[in-house]
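Structure tokens please, single chain.
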Amino acid sequence: MNRRRVLLRGALGLALAAVVFFVVVPRIASYGSVGSRLSTVSTGWAVALAAGAVLDILVTALPWRVLLPQLRWTGALGFTQASTAVTAVVPGGAPLGMAISFGLLRRLRVGAGEAGFAVGLAGLWSQVMILLYPLVGAVLVLGSGRLSGATLAIALASGGAAAAIALVAVAALRSAAVARRLGERFARLRDERLLHLRGRWRALTVATLVNQLSGYLLLELSIRAVGIPVHQLPPSETFLAWSIGRVISTLPLTPAGIGFVELGLIGTLVGFGGGHAHVVAAVLLYRGLIVVPTLVVGFAALFALRRDRGYGSASATSSRGSS
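Here you go.
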């Protein structure tokens, strides 16, 4: 993607986000009423939200520690935060994020084959789970009678996409012939890494779940912190709203889905019966806690990575210590 195209997409994304925040959202709830809701957040809730934001950052290292145990925790945490931060400001979606992750892993002195396979597996596990969440959420809400036809359709389509991706991945990993059709390099990596995957897929699944569901925990805390009671928006409905927002965030519409994720969350939660000002306040609080800390930590980590090629690499540390 050339620089002019990136700039054009970035400008278009900013324009779309501006329309959402300055035109659409104020029609749902005025920013004055939203500010009033946010001002009611107690000290106790503020501490809980801060702890949730820290946890959400820390657990991003878990899948990479499973796939690349030679990385120190700081290295796994730093490179994934740096990758997420860059992806949040540059349009390109999941493919760009994977390319950035690969480049940063190579900077940490991870071999090309190992880095490529780790990025591919982490991306696969993450994407399949993200696409499955709306279906799980729809099942949880189904008995309440508050599941709209449009939301059910989104959940079914998302679940179908997850199933298709999983089937292709399983076929490629289990069948050498299918792997060769996807490319000679993939077939070679499959043969080299299949044993490694068999020993780690359960741990990778758990690590990916913990990593992603920390985001849902932060949304749930934000919703309760602004005063929305459980009887008005139960966890099953907030989970479904979060899962739809998570799917939207993977689409290359705007960097980090800014504008569209907020609109999807607000629309779903209001549709379930949440008060307009309360919902907008909760969503903006949640998104701020997700995006801002990642930008701060991520760009700080990127600066460290650019200065020190051995940052966070246990193998690099040991080699320097023995020289």
